[in-house]
Specification:
Multidrug-efflux Transporter 1 Regulator Bmrr, Chain A; nine-stranded antiparallel beta sheet; Arc Repressor Mutant, subunit A; alpha+beta; 2 domains; 8 helices
Length: 279
């Protein structure tokens, strides 16, 4: 448990040590010994904001302190903290602090402090997280795919589902699966998919993907969406994974399994599948 938390904290400390440099998500994730794909999902679940938001907020917080305490020019501070132009820095700074960078130099200016994150495990009342480890054969799905940025995916994927379900496309693919497949660590492909039936023709605009055979940790989610899914997802990264001694994360993908609605949203059942391998 402590090793897992230490790895995440090492990644945060790496960010802090390189805030005035160009930082790659791959280098950050390497400090935690996980892939960039998994690290960003874990970080967001644990902290409530994305890695990109954390870096931006920390840079803007430090930039404000430097402007208020030194005679450094605004343009020099903008360049130091990764902004290509004074205008882009001014817009970001004003949105974050509520005042422009030049005003930060005035005595008594009110600025916001975004402190470095410290990851801690707090043991509270015992909670139950149901799961099972299963071996699954390779299977093929067919569906609609769209590429998403990890930074904005939480807002954009529900829109993708809404668009699909409100169109005639839901007659072609009902949405048995929601599948995330890593693209380059910063973006991933998300499929709304069903099991592929090889005797059926693949409609235009649809594609097939092969999900490899392997070991999966399967987590049931019960209750109205999206809250039930989000709650279980947070517990996977904050409770199950830190305490799991037998398995570690495997492939850079995960699956959400959706069942047909049963009437009462509070009785809804779905699953999260995480690929794992024996340690």
């Amino acid at each position: 448990m402590s090793g897992w938390i230490a790895g995440i904290q090492n990644a945060i400390e790496y960010i802090e040590d390189h805030l005035t440099e160009e930082i790659s998500i791959e280098d950050i994730a390497a400090e935690a010994f996980v892939s960039a794909f998994h690290f960003q999902r874990i970080f967001t679940a644990l902290c409530g904001f994305t890695v990109g938001e954390y870096i931006r907020n920390r840079r803007l917080s430090m930039a404000a302190q430097e402007l208020s305490r030194t005679d450094t020019k605004v343009i020099d501070v903008a360049v130091k903290y990764g902004y290509d132009s004074p205008d882009s820095f001014t817009r970001a700074f004003t949105k974050f602090h509520g005042i422009p960078p030049s005003a930060a130099k005035l005595k008594g200016a009110t600025l916001k402090l975004f402190a470095p994150v410290k990851i801690k495990l707090i043991l509270e009342g015992g909670t139950m997280l149901e799961y099972k480890i299963v071996e699954k054969a390779q299977f093929t799905v067919m569906g609609r795919s769209r590429k998403f940025n990890i930074e904005t995916s939480n807002e954009e994927i529900p829109k993708f589902w809404q668009e699909h379900m409100q169109s005639g496309d839901s007659e072609i693919v009902c949405g048995m699966y929601g599948i995330c497949i890593d693209s380059d660590g910063k973006e991933f492909d998300y499929l709304i998919a069903d099991n592929y039936l090889p005797w059926n023709e693949i409609p235009e605009g649809y594609e097939t993907r092969v999900i490899p055979a392997g070991t999966w940790a399967v987590f049931p989610c019960r209750g109205a969406l999206p809250k039930s899914l989000q709650d279980v997802n947070t517990k996977i990264w904050s409770e199950w994974l830190p305490s799991c001694k037998e398995y570690k994360l495997a492939g850079n993908y995960n699956v959400e399994l959706y069942t047909p609605p049963q009437g009462n949203p509070d009785d809804y059942y779905c699953e999260i599948w995480i690929p794992v391998q024996k340690i």
